[in-house]
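Weekly modeling sync, notes
Attendees: S.R. (lead), two postdocs, one rotation student

Agenda item 3: backlog of single-chain predictions. S.R. asked that every request posted to the team notebook include the full sequence so nobody has to chase files. The rotation student volunteered to paste the first one in as an example of the format we agreed on. Action items at the bottom.

Example entry:
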Amino acid sequence: MAEEKDNQGVEPEPEVTDTEDIEVLREALTEAKTQAESHLDSWKRSQADFVNYKRRSEQERDEARQFANAVLICNLLPVLDDLERALSSVPKELAKLPWVEGIKLIEHKFNSILESQGVTLIKAKGKPFDPNLHEAAMCSQGKEGIVIKEMEKGYMLRDRVIRPAMVSVGNGATAKEPGKHK
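Predicted structure, as returned to the notebook:
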């Protein structure tokens, strides 16, 4: 028995009259819905993963851009140290000479450029010793755990330490006053 075709050559849908056929179709529909929901959930997870990937990539790119100059800045810091030491050793009677004033201006400009790049000085003297910010070079008489002397300045680039301050830390001993003996 050949099935009849409509005018366009498409077979007509078979009539469903049997309860058993209706159950089969309901199960197929339920299975198709479950599969569609599964695919939708998978697609949503993939989309969320992609959004997170883009955010992470952008964050890493920004961080790389911010800290790209860190090596150059670290290499320039000893020059700034030398400039500061040279200025601190100028005798008072020469301090007002034009060439000394010019060097002071150069030092100020150098510091301004570093500051504009996000470089900040780590305050150390009189502060509690922090191994994340300070490098203990020696212990000295003074209040325990407090930075007594700063031997080399420390610097941060934004929120990262690029050079810790080299310091002398108090050991808790106090200096004996002259003329007092036990």
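Discussion: group reviewed the output briefly. The chain has a mean pLDDT of 87.
Action items: rotation student to repeat for the remaining queue; S.R. to check formatting next week.
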